Amino acid sequence: MAGGLRVSELTALRWRDIDLAEHRLTVVRSKSDAGRRHVDLARDLRNLLVAHKLASPYSRPDDFVFPTRRGTRRDRNTVRTRVLYPAIKRANAALEADGKTPISADVTFHSLRRTYASLLAEEGADAAYTKAQIGHKSAKFTLEVYTDVDNRRHGANERVGALLRPPETAQNGTNGEIGRTEVTEEELR
Protein backbone atom coordinates (compact mmCIF):
# COMPACT_ATOMS: atom_id res chain seq x y z
CA MET A 1 0.00 0.00 0.00
CA ALA A 2 2.79 2.43 0.83
CA GLY A 3 4.13 2.41 -2.72
CA GLY A 4 1.00 2.06 -4.84
CA LEU A 5 2.39 -0.80 -6.91
CA ARG A 6 0.24 -3.29 -8.78
CA VAL A 7 0.66 -6.80 -7.40
CA SER A 8 2.33 -7.90 -10.65
CA GLU A 9 4.82 -5.02 -10.32
CA LEU A 10 5.51 -6.00 -6.72
CA THR A 11 6.23 -9.62 -7.59
CA ALA A 12 8.58 -8.57 -10.42
CA LEU A 13 10.56 -6.18 -8.22
CA ARG A 14 14.26 -7.01 -7.85
CA TRP A 15 16.76 -5.48 -5.45
CA ARG A 16 18.55 -3.77 -8.35
CA ASP A 17 15.29 -1.80 -8.88
CA ILE A 18 15.46 -0.24 -5.41
CA ASP A 19 17.78 2.63 -4.53
CA LEU A 20 17.60 2.67 -0.74
CA ALA A 21 20.03 5.61 -0.50
CA GLU A 22 17.79 7.75 -2.73
CA HIS A 23 14.52 6.46 -1.21
CA ARG A 24 13.28 5.40 -4.62
CA LEU A 25 12.34 2.31 -6.56
CA THR A 26 11.98 1.80 -10.28
CA VAL A 27 9.16 -0.22 -11.76
CA VAL A 28 10.77 -1.92 -14.75
CA ARG A 29 7.99 -4.38 -15.64
CA SER A 30 4.45 -3.05 -15.89
CA LYS A 31 1.34 -3.46 -17.98
CA SER A 32 1.80 -0.07 -19.68
CA ASP A 33 4.47 2.44 -20.67
CA ALA A 34 3.20 4.82 -17.97
CA GLY A 35 3.55 1.97 -15.46
CA ARG A 36 7.31 1.91 -15.93
CA ARG A 37 8.26 4.60 -13.48
CA HIS A 38 10.17 5.82 -10.44
CA VAL A 39 8.33 5.65 -7.12
CA ASP A 40 9.38 7.74 -4.15
CA LEU A 41 9.67 5.74 -0.94
CA ALA A 42 8.39 7.14 2.32
CA ARG A 43 11.02 6.98 5.05
CA ASP A 44 9.14 4.25 6.95
CA LEU A 45 8.76 2.12 3.83
CA ARG A 46 12.44 2.57 3.01
CA ASN A 47 13.37 1.51 6.54
CA LEU A 48 11.17 -1.60 6.29
CA LEU A 49 12.84 -2.50 3.00
CA VAL A 50 16.29 -2.09 4.56
CA ALA A 51 15.32 -4.44 7.41
CA HIS A 52 13.77 -6.89 4.94
CA LYS A 53 16.90 -6.92 2.79
CA LEU A 54 19.16 -7.49 5.79
CA ALA A 55 17.01 -10.42 6.94
CA SER A 56 16.55 -12.00 3.50
CA PRO A 57 18.74 -14.81 2.17
CA TYR A 58 17.94 -13.33 -1.26
CA SER A 59 19.43 -9.85 -1.27
CA ARG A 60 21.71 -9.80 -4.30
CA PRO A 61 20.89 -7.29 -7.06
CA ASP A 62 19.19 -9.85 -9.33
CA ASP A 63 17.18 -11.45 -6.51
CA PHE A 64 13.46 -10.78 -6.21
CA VAL A 65 12.57 -8.53 -3.30
CA PHE A 66 9.64 -10.74 -2.26
CA PRO A 67 10.60 -14.22 -3.50
CA THR A 68 9.28 -17.66 -2.75
CA ARG A 69 11.21 -19.81 -0.28
CA ARG A 70 13.32 -21.02 -3.21
CA GLY A 71 14.10 -17.49 -4.40
CA THR A 72 11.84 -17.55 -7.45
CA ARG A 73 9.23 -14.98 -8.43
CA ARG A 74 5.97 -15.25 -6.54
CA ASP A 75 2.74 -15.80 -8.40
CA ARG A 76 0.48 -12.78 -7.96
CA ASN A 77 -2.48 -14.98 -6.98
CA THR A 78 -0.40 -16.77 -4.37
CA VAL A 79 0.50 -13.39 -2.85
CA ARG A 80 -3.19 -12.83 -2.23
CA THR A 81 -3.79 -16.20 -0.59
CA ARG A 82 -0.49 -16.60 1.26
CA VAL A 83 0.34 -13.02 2.17
CA LEU A 84 -2.63 -10.64 2.03
CA TYR A 85 -5.36 -12.84 3.50
CA PRO A 86 -3.21 -14.15 6.38
CA ALA A 87 -2.08 -10.57 7.15
CA ILE A 88 -5.70 -9.41 7.25
CA LYS A 89 -6.59 -12.38 9.48
CA ARG A 90 -3.79 -11.48 11.94
CA ALA A 91 -4.75 -7.80 11.87
CA ASN A 92 -8.40 -8.62 12.48
CA ALA A 93 -7.51 -10.76 15.49
CA ALA A 94 -5.59 -7.82 16.96
CA LEU A 95 -8.39 -5.38 16.09
CA GLU A 96 -10.99 -7.68 17.66
CA ALA A 97 -8.90 -7.95 20.83
CA ASP A 98 -8.90 -4.14 21.01
CA GLY A 99 -12.65 -3.96 20.35
CA LYS A 100 -12.16 -2.31 16.96
CA THR A 101 -13.85 -2.86 13.63
CA PRO A 102 -12.21 -5.57 11.53
CA ILE A 103 -10.80 -5.07 8.05
CA SER A 104 -13.28 -6.00 5.36
CA ALA A 105 -12.87 -9.34 3.63
CA ASP A 106 -13.31 -7.39 0.38
CA VAL A 107 -9.87 -5.75 0.68
CA THR A 108 -7.61 -6.60 -2.26
CA PHE A 109 -4.17 -5.47 -3.34
CA HIS A 110 -5.94 -3.13 -5.71
CA SER A 111 -7.80 -1.64 -2.72
CA LEU A 112 -4.42 -0.90 -1.17
CA ARG A 113 -3.27 0.77 -4.39
CA ARG A 114 -6.39 2.95 -4.34
CA THR A 115 -5.73 3.80 -0.70
CA TYR A 116 -2.21 4.95 -1.61
CA ALA A 117 -3.55 7.28 -4.31
CA SER A 118 -6.22 8.61 -1.95
CA LEU A 119 -3.67 9.30 0.77
CA LEU A 120 -1.42 11.16 -1.66
CA ALA A 121 -4.38 13.29 -2.71
CA GLU A 122 -5.40 13.85 0.92
CA GLU A 123 -1.90 15.06 1.73
CA GLY A 124 -2.12 17.59 -1.07
CA ALA A 125 -0.05 15.88 -3.76
CA ASP A 126 -1.01 17.25 -7.14
CA ALA A 127 -2.69 14.99 -9.66
CA ALA A 128 0.35 14.87 -11.96
CA TYR A 129 2.57 13.59 -9.14
CA THR A 130 -0.02 11.05 -8.01
CA LYS A 131 -0.52 9.69 -11.53
CA ALA A 132 3.25 9.40 -11.99
CA GLN A 133 3.65 7.56 -8.68
CA ILE A 134 0.99 4.97 -9.46
CA GLY A 135 1.80 4.67 -13.14
CA HIS A 136 -1.17 6.14 -14.94
CA LYS A 137 -1.14 7.94 -18.25
CA SER A 138 -3.92 10.36 -17.28
CA ALA A 139 -4.15 12.46 -14.13
CA LYS A 140 -7.87 12.83 -14.78
CA PHE A 141 -8.29 9.05 -14.65
CA THR A 142 -6.29 8.93 -11.44
CA LEU A 143 -8.49 11.56 -9.80
CA GLU A 144 -11.76 10.08 -10.98
CA VAL A 145 -11.06 6.46 -10.22
CA TYR A 146 -8.45 6.32 -7.49
CA THR A 147 -9.32 9.17 -5.19
CA ASP A 148 -12.53 9.65 -3.29
CA VAL A 149 -13.12 13.37 -3.61
CA ASP A 150 -16.36 13.32 -1.60
CA ASN A 151 -14.57 12.05 1.49
CA ARG A 152 -11.93 14.79 1.24
CA ARG A 153 -14.28 17.68 0.50
CA HIS A 154 -14.80 18.76 4.13
CA GLY A 155 -11.09 18.84 4.93
CA ALA A 156 -10.28 20.66 1.71
CA ASN A 157 -12.89 23.31 2.47
CA GLU A 158 -11.42 23.79 5.93
CA ARG A 159 -7.95 24.33 4.43
CA VAL A 160 -9.34 26.82 1.89
CA GLY A 161 -11.20 28.57 4.69
CA ALA A 162 -7.96 28.92 6.63
CA LEU A 163 -6.47 30.79 3.69
CA LEU A 164 -9.37 33.23 3.74
CA ARG A 165 -9.19 34.10 7.44
CA PRO A 166 -8.10 37.62 8.34
CA PRO A 167 -4.47 37.98 9.53
CA GLU A 168 -5.43 38.23 13.22
CA THR A 169 -6.75 34.66 13.07
CA ALA A 170 -3.81 33.24 11.14
CA GLN A 171 -1.12 31.17 12.77
CA ASN A 172 1.00 33.34 15.05
CA GLY A 173 4.76 32.98 15.47
CA THR A 174 6.52 29.66 15.38
CA ASN A 175 4.87 28.00 18.34
CA GLY A 176 1.87 26.87 16.31
CA GLU A 177 -0.67 28.89 18.26
CA ILE A 178 -3.64 30.08 16.30
CA GLY A 179 -5.62 33.22 16.99
CA ARG A 180 -9.38 33.42 17.40
CA THR A 181 -11.17 31.39 14.72
CA GLU A 182 -14.74 31.23 16.03
CA VAL A 183 -17.30 33.77 14.88
CA THR A 184 -20.23 34.69 17.09
CA GLU A 185 -23.81 34.82 15.86
CA GLU A 186 -23.75 38.58 16.44
CA GLU A 187 -20.75 39.01 14.16
CA LEU A 188 -22.52 37.03 11.47
CA ARG A 189 -25.43 39.48 11.46
Q: DSSP strand (E) fraction?
A: 5-15%
Proportion in helices: 40-55%
Look at the helices and sheets and give the structural class.
mainly alpha
N to C succession of SSEs? HEEEHHHHHHH
Number of strands: 3
SS element count, helices: 8
Oligomer: single chain
Shape: globular
| Strand order across the largest sheet | 1-2-3
Q: Uncertain runs with pLDDT below 50, 5 residues or more?
A: 169-184
Structure description:
Helix 4 (109-122) crosses helix 6 (139-146). The protein has a domain at 150-189. Residues 169-184 have low confidence and may be disordered. Strands 1-2-3 form a 3-stranded antiparallel beta sheet. Strand 1 and strand 2 (24-27) form a beta hairpin. 48% of the residues lie in helices and 5% in strands. With 189 residues, the protein is mainly alpha-helical. It has 8 helices and 3 strands, in the order H-E-E-E-H-H-H-H-H-H-H.
Walk me through the topology.
Layout: H1 7-12, E1 18-19, E2 24-27, E3 37-40, H2 43-55, H3 76-97, H4 109-122, H5 127-134, H6 139-146, H7 149-164, H8 185-188
Antiparallel strand pairs: 1-2, 2-3
Task: Name some characteristics of this structure.
189 residues; mainly alpha; globular
Give the gist of this structure.
This protein has 189 residues and is mainly alpha-helical. Helix content is 48%, strand content 5%.
